[in-house]
């Protein structure tokens, strides 16, 4: 065995080999082996010493180890691939009482219940095939705001990351940007090259950091905002007076109440505009 890593555990390549953990395409797995990089991701989440960190898809535990090395008080790692559990158990043994491993599908687990009311940060190298669905789940959450999490520090394909932080008028601006920005503040922290992964994906990845902020006064419900943005961006080339007809036969009074020109297209309307539109739809 080669020299142990800084945390006294074997290098990740050896862990993968010892437990026969080839990345599964069906689970969207791409493993990060460079502990310097995973520690950089952990640091992007800020001070972890006073909170529980929820991690989704830890795999062989590269980011898990980094979170613990960077001082996370406790890490709860949700992993659906049973092959990874023995490798994660070794990390748990090296950090007594600080790592809890939960076998299951993150899309079906009540994350808020899992963290039992502790101050929580979510940090994850999300599997590509469930990343967007999990983000929307955490952003939508229960109606009460702020949510159970203090921040999200997540890895996405760069194209998805750009859609999360996109501004009105850009090609990337759409439903995901509105849902991410109406009551939280996302920013792109840094990119991660394909060569950092095993196996390397075909695309560059990006780390996004998101913190909740106050929703607009008289905020619409998240369900209404989702419906309105889905209709508006579902036919983004059409003017809104046509695109919104799947919501209501005559959308023009709603647009007028929201101070949006009927001839505007969805990508021209800012987040505040969509909130006004959702409120006027609720009122109608």
In short:
By secondary structure, this protein is an alpha/beta fold. The protein has helices at residues 12-18, 35-44, 62-69, 85-94, 111-114, 131-140, 158-165, 175-181, 222-234, 240-243, 252-257, 271-283, and strands spanning 31-32, 52-56, 74-79, 99-103, 120-125, 149-157, 184-192, 197-198, 205-212.
Provide key terms for this protein.
alpha/beta; Rossmann fold; Helicase, Ruva Protein, domain 3; 12 helices
Low-confidence stretches: none
CATH superfamily of the largest domain: Vaccinia Virus protein VP39
Spell out the helices and strands N to C: HEHEHEHEHEHEHHEEEHHHH
Summed over residues and divided by their number, the pLDDT gives a mean of 92
What is the C-alpha radius of gyration, as a whole number of Å?
21 Å
Shape: elongated
Number of helices: 12
Which percent bin holds the helix content?
Answer: 25-40%
Which architecture name of the largest domain does CATH use? 3-Layer(aba) Sandwich
How many distinct folded domains?
2
CATH topology of the largest domain: Rossmann fold
Class computed from helices, strands and strand pairing: alpha/beta
Strand order of the largest sheet: 4-3-2-5-6-9-7
CATH class of the largest domain: Alpha Beta
Instruction: Report the span from N to C terminus.
Output: 69 Å
The profile of the biggest β sheet is: 7 strands, mixed
Strand residues, percent? 15-25%
Q: How many DSSP E strands?
A: 9
Describe this structure in words.
The chain is an alpha/beta fold. The protein is built from twelve helices and nine strands. The chain has a seven-stranded mixed β-sheet, sandwiched between helices. A two-stranded antiparallel sheet has the order 1-8. Helix 2 packs across helix 3 and helix 9 (222-234) crosses helix 12 (271-283). The longest helix is centred in the C-terminal third of the chain and has 13 residues, at 222-234. The mean pLDDT is 92.
């Amino acid at each position: 065995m080669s020299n142990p890593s800084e945390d006294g555990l074997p290098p990740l390549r050896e862990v993968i080999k010892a437990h026969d953990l080839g990345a599964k395409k069906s689970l969207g797995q791409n493993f990060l082996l460079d502990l310097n990089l995973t520690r950089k991701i952990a640091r992007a989440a800020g001070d972890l010493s006073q909170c529980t960190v929820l991690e989704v898809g830890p795999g062989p535990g590269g980011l898990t180890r980094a979170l613990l090395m960077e001082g996370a008080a406790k890490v709860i790692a949700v992993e659906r691939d049973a092959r990874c559990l023995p490798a994660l158990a070794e990390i748990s043994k090296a950090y007594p009482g600080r790592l809890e491993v939960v076998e299951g599908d993150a899309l079906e687990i009540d994350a808020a219940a899992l963290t039992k009311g502790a101050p929580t940060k979510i940090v994850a190298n999300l599997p590509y095939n469930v990343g967007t669905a999990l983000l929307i789940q955490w952003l939508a959450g229960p109606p009460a705001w702020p949510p159970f999490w203090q921040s999200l520090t997540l890895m996405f394909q760069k194209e998805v990351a750009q859609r999360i932080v996109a501004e009105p008028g850009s090609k990337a601006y759409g439903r995901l940007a509105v849902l991410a920005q109406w009551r939280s503040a996302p920013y792109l922290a840094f990119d991660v090259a394909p060569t950092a992964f095993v196996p390397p994906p075909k695309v560059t990845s990006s780390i996004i950091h998101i913190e909740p902020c106050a929703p607009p006064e008289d905020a619409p419900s998240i369900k209404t905002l989702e419906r309105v943005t889905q209709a508006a961006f579902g036919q983004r080339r059409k003017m809104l007076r046509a695109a919104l007809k799947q919501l209501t036969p005559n959308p023009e009074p709603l647009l007028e109440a929201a101070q949006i020109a009927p001839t505007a297209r969805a990508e021209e309307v800012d987040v505040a505009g969509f909130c006004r539109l959702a409120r006027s739809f609720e009122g109608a």
